[in-house]
Amino acid sequence: MSPAWTSVMSVANVVRCRRFISRIATDSLKSYRNYTTRLKPRTTVVASPLTSSLNVAKHSITQDVTRCNIVNLRQFSTDGSISNVLTEEKEDIDPFSLVQDDLNHLCSNIKQELRTDVGCLFDISSYHFDGMGKFFRPMVVLLMAKACNIHVAYNVLDDSGSKGSIPLSSSQKVIAMLAEMIHTASLIHDDVIDKAEMRRGKPTVQKLWGQTRAVLTGNYILAVASIALARIRNEEVVTVLTQILEDLIEGEFMQLGSKEQENERFSHYLKKTYKKTASLVANTCKAVAIISQCSENVIEIAFEYGKHIGIAFQLIDDLLDFISNEIVLGKPASADLKLGLATAPVLFAAHQYSEINPMIMRRFSQPGDIQRTLELVAKSDGVSSTLFLAKEHCKEAVKNISQLAASRERQALINISHRVIDRLK
Prior knowledge:
Layout: H1 3-6, H2 11-39, H3 51-64, H4 95-98, H5 100-104, H6 106-114, H7 121-125, H8 136-152, H9 170-194, E1 198-199, E2 202-203, H10 205-209, H11 211-230, H12 235-255, H13 262-291, H14 296-323, H15 326-329, H16 335-338, H17 344-352, H18 356-361, H19 369-379, H20 382-401, H21 408-422
Antiparallel strand pairs: 1-2
Helix pairs in contact: 2-3, 2-13, 8-9, 8-13, 8-21, 9-11, 9-13, 12-13, 13-14, 14-20, 14-21, 17-19, 17-20, 20-21
């Protein structure tokens, strides 16, 4: 046990923490198995979602999770960054560069789809498609599509004896476009629910045009996306992508409540995180694999990669809400607490400081609740434990994608797992 850890927690607390994370992993594993069995009766699960979390947490939390507070998270690693919680990137491949040409046309293609003569609807609906987003989701989808295409054609050689270039199909490009459209529509709706005033460093749609127009605009983007989806004329792909919309709504309803039982809260939080964030990445990756005419096993690999990367991305997003300022985030810091939401850092901290539990149940609504919670999270291992869990999901993502045929695109998807952990915003 490291001196840094010993100085904060007693041996008894370490044991309690081990049991807590193990229980999280066990409960989450059951939840994922039940959910994915219902969702995907046609496929066979090839990787247990949180097996790595369960096994590693039992014997290495005292070595792998160094206690850190909100101020000194960057000290989690020895070199001033946190990227070394995963193994180093084997190849210096910039994921964005491999799909840059397609991403460069993404916003213009979306705006073309959104064209309308109805009032200011086009101006509002195209407001966030200004090229200033991260394009994380379409980038992952395009890379997955290319990796799957190469995997399917792995034994097909050109005249020179090397694998030929495998172009993206128009349908795969549409899936990437739909990923960004659905994501943006959900953000517009989220900003209405949260009464948010800033998004991506500028005023929100509801702030500029009001709640009614914001709701209708989000609906319009989803409607246009649905029309584009129908044009693909692939019933299985349509079914997979409409699952995303169902998950988004269910996840939003799950976020409105909280489990009274402490041992159910983390499972509830992770399932909500899957539905609100990871389902979009998982199912769009699955869709492009279907279009590639991959085997059932490879389709499942694509889904599992997207699921784990999506969950890790949201865990880091929740972590950043505690350690970043408004300029870095592009939205107010500590926004989740102000909305009454208990995310991973809070739930981990509540295991060490039970006084957080009643504040969770009353959604941090009483004077001083938010400040006190921030203080307790800072004193706890909530931030470092969240980082640890995000790392485990990234490991699962890498384990899955590594089963595909070797390619630059596959390596880029592996490298994304490092960048998810080390991202600034």
